[in-house]
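Sample entry was shown:

___
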Amino acid sequence: MQLTVMALEDQGICAYVPSPDFNQRTPFYGASQFTDDGEHDEYRCPQDQVLRRRTAKYTEGTVAYQVAAAT
């Protein structure tokens, strides 16, 4: 049985789920390590690879950027 955080709190249990600190917990780069190049609508990772716009979901307010899989 899975309980949601809301269900736990409804039972008087204070749920604590730490936010991931990607810079310390995983081998992946956190969002703060990318630089935004608004003029060209792309991002650069710490390895200086360019992430170009892949998709945009305007109704959800999200834009996805991606680098080639081989990179």
Q: What stands out?
A: The first strand starts at residue 35 and ends at 37. The chain has one domain: 5-66. The mean pLDDT is 85. Strands lie at 35-37, 42-44, 50-57, 62-66.
